[in-house]
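ok so I'm stuck.
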Amino acid sequence: MKSLVIALCLIGLSSANISTNSEKSVDKACPSKNPFGESSADSCCGDSTNCVADATSRIVDDMGIEKYDDFIKYTNEYLVRSYEYFFLSAQFGTYGKDRPGFQKTLRGLSDSAWNKGVEMIKEMAKRGFSHSFNMNKDVESITSNSNVTELVALAKAAEIEKGLLVKANDIHRHHSHAAFDSEKTCGYDAGLSHYIVEEIIEEKTSTVRTLVGHVNQLKRLFVQDPKTYPLSVFMFDQHLQ
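replied:
not stuck anymore, here's the structure
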């Protein structure tokens, strides 16, 4: 009896009209090409009215990718900053400026930024959108000055991380307080808001606090005794290792 009920359910499901967000049903989908090369699907899909759009994981049909423009540009900034951290770290792995501790810290920031950028691209893919590599003009340039000191490098890293934290807070405000009925603020996404808090803001807060602490410590060491500052930097580098 149980198997009979299951069979009837399967028959009912197979004959059901399963609709997508494009208001077309999958029972009208075009046949796929067979292995012998006949293009029966071409004649069907030549007429767009007979074809069915792919199913999508978008929460709201009218929410286009432009509603996520701020998050996409934010993601791209992570990729750019990853290269910037990489160039900064390379300056402290040379014969003339051998600072393995500073190099390790900056290289870690580079790897973290790259991995987080890739992770955020995947987060957008969950929502049925392909990624776009549009950039904000204020982050297109990468600093690769070879005359950066240890203090300046950490201060620059702290500034970058703090800027990313502020932008994450702004993006969270947009996607957590936006309204469906307002075109200007449309973009509410509770899942993305939760992701930003759990995976970005908390981590960035800790990173900013750590980097700012390093910068303040180095500044105090220089102010207390500039003559012994080179030795202080060497010891501080040992601490970072």
